[in-house]
């Protein structure tokens, strides 16, 4: 799993058991956006907003320094948010609860975040990271250079390939469902991937560069090489 | 007796001329009492239509107004209920209306005041676009519009508001300069 295979590591983590759909009402709500400045290219029907851009659509929130917006002829909206240098664009969403009394939220970051209103797909690009919370407590976290989150299917597709195409890594944390210290610590992209899995959780196809022993209910981390 | 009658006739005639010239002067000032313009009105016209041409002799814009008052000294023009039509070929028509306007230098710049509305007609690819503000400066020859005032921009179902606007109808770019707020409607209605 080293080298090229790792570089192109793409992983489909079907977290259906733990996931829920994006809040249904979000799709039906208008998007409110604020910014310091905007330019509408009336010829190409593209809107560029700059300076402290915040977009709120129901429970979904996107922030960044610059946002490009356009809509297709059918009225579907497309947004591309980019961050200022040395900062990250953010994505937040509340999802319909699967179990009563448990509110699930997602918080993601990336240098660039794309949101497609038609397919309800959120793509986080470069330094991408998504955390899932239940009632404010972090349940799992996934990092890579590109995360494609399909909010309809509630699935992630992660590409570990770095921006220059060389190497890269997918890192995934899944907190124990009820275990102590359920919040997974943020782990930097060290030379070896770290996976933390709760008991009974199906292990997703993982692009680890070596067999890392997995022990339930414990945070396992690989040493640096 | 005949001399006396002639004198009276002369006096009545003089008074008539005086009254007529007074009425004429008043009618010239009529409706422009608060214009604050320097100079004297040398002519006015109602229901005007004025066409500006480009270097090739093609019409570039047309300006309509209910009333036009021209000031001789400064060549300034006051317009009531003006309507400016941009006639750029192969582009959807752009029109600007307001309550009043003040044009300078043979309509080189036009200051539009009160309920200013700029509309761009829809075409095959684009929905209609509408800009609303209270004061706006226009350079008709450059197809350039701007304001420092709050603006509301409606493009199809999208609504944007902001403070200050710069609209270049040649490049077809509309900038909102500060405090931008936008509302993008959902595709699927509840």
Oligomer kind = heterodimer
- Classification by helices and strands of chain A: mainly beta
Strand order of the largest sheet of chain B: 2-3-6-7-5-4
Strand content of chain B: over 45%
* CATH class category name of chain A: Mainly Beta
Q: Give the strand content of chain A.
A: over 45%
CATH architecture label name of chain A:
Sandwich
- Total count of strands of chain A: 14
Q: What is the largest interface, and how many residues per chain?
A: A-B, 31 and 31 residues
Number of domain units of chain A: 1
Describe the protein in words:
- The complex is a heterodimer of chains A (225) and B (190).
- Chain A is mainly β and 225 residues long.
- Chain A has one domain (3-196): lipopolysaccharide transport protein A fold.
- Chain A has helices at residues 3-7, 24-28; strands spanning 10-14, 31-35, 37-41, 46-57, 60-71, 77-82, 89-95, 104-110, 112-116, 121-134, 137-150, 155-159, 171-174, 195-196.
- In chain A, strand 5 (60-71) and strand 6 form a beta hairpin.
- The longest helix of chain A is centred in the N-terminal third of the chain and has 5 residues, at 3-7.
- Chain A is globular and about 50 Å long.
- Mean pLDDT of chain A is 71; it is low at 1-20 and 179-225.
- With 190 residues, chain B is mainly beta.
- Chain B has two domains: 1-30; 39-183, Lipopolysaccharide (LPS) transport protein A like domain (lipopolysaccharide transport protein A fold, Sandwich), CATH 2.60.450.10.
- In chain B, 15% of the residues lie in helices and 53% in strands.
- Chain B is built from one helix and eleven strands, in the order αβββββββββββ.
- Chain B has one helix at 2-29, and strands at 41-53, 59-71, 77-80, 83-86, 94-97, 100-104, 109-120, 129-139, 144-155, 158-168, 173-184.
- Chain B has a six-stranded antiparallel β-barrel.
- The longest helix of chain B is centred in the N-terminal third of the chain and has 28 residues, at 2-29.
- Chain B is elongated, with a radius of gyration of 23 Å.
- The relative contact order of chain B is 0.10.
- The A-B interface holds A 25, 27-43, 45, 47, 49, 57, 69, 71, 73-77, 117-118 and B 120, 125-126, 129, 153, 155-158, 160, 162, 171-190.
- Strand 2 of chain A pairs antiparallel with strand 11 (173-184) of chain B.
